[in-house]
Design a protein that fits this description.
The protein has a 5-stranded parallel beta sheet, sandwiched between helices. It is of the alpha/beta class. It is built from 5 helices and 9 strands, in the order E-E-E-H-E-E-E-H-H-H-E-H-E-E. The protein has one domain: P-loop containing nucleotide triphosphate hydrolases (Rossmann fold). Helices cover 26% and strands 29% of the residues. A hairpin with a 2-residue loop joins strand 4 and strand 5.
Length: 203
């Protein structure tokens, strides 16, 4: 299981600090939320936790049990969904599942058909994603992210474009397929996005 440790972590752009002196440990297999208002730096922190960008000061370290993970090898252990990350919208959902499986296997022995059923997108599976509604697209990406075999899952405002019914579907998906994963959720103070978390930090 992946454990994350941040020590005196800060990030600035030009001369403006987005956040400073963050210290926390996210234990392996637990779920955590990062909450804050718009512009507080939640997405920036998610990017740091993903290894996409580096902090301006302090450190973030990743551990697989007791072994430290190099940022260069982190991509093998991580799945992420965020508003700034786009899928290949020319693909149909089966094509996207096949494409993702080349880089990260799915949890257990789930078949393409089973993954599509879990996403509740059977009727639209042969359409390219560019023809999906924003809610359908978000449902597809959440399914691929949480059903991956990755040990670390980062969700940046996962309930964006989801209606009330689909938010319950997301909560059920997180409960069933987020087990044994370290999950970090960034949210704009929306408790529906981080049900049953083990800890919350505010920035």
């Amino acid at each position: 299981m992946i454990r994350l440790v941040a020590s005196k972590c800060g990030k600035k752009y030009h001369s403006k600090w987005v956040f400073k002196n963050l210290n926390f440990t996210f234990e392996g297999g637990q779920h955590y939320a990062i909450v804050g208002k718009n512009g507080s730096g939640k997405s920036t922190l998610i990017k740091i936790l993903s290894g996409y960008t580096k902090p301006s000061e302090g450190t973030v370290k990743w551990f697989d049990d007791q072994d430290i993970i190099s940022p260069d090898n982190l991509f093998q252990q991580i799945s992420i969904i965020a508003p700034y990350i786009e899928a290949i919208e020319e693909f149909t959902l089966p094509e996207l599942i096949k494409f993702q499986s080349k880089f990260k296997p799915f949890k257990g022995s789930l078949t393409t058909s089973e993954i599509i059923q879990i996403a509740k997108l059977q009727e639209s599976q042969n359409k390219p994603l560019q023809q999906y509604s924003s809610g359908m697209k978000q449902r597809a990406l959440l399914t691929l992210t949480l059903l991956s075999g990755s040990k670390l899952v980062l969700l940046d405002e996962p309930c964006t474009n989801l209606d009330k019914e689909t938010r319950q579907w997301y909560a059920d998906l997180l409960d069933q397929y987020g087990k044994d994963k370290t999950v970090v959720i960034a949210s704009n103070h929306n408790p529906e996005e981080y049900p049953g978390v083990n800890g919350v930090i505010s920035i």
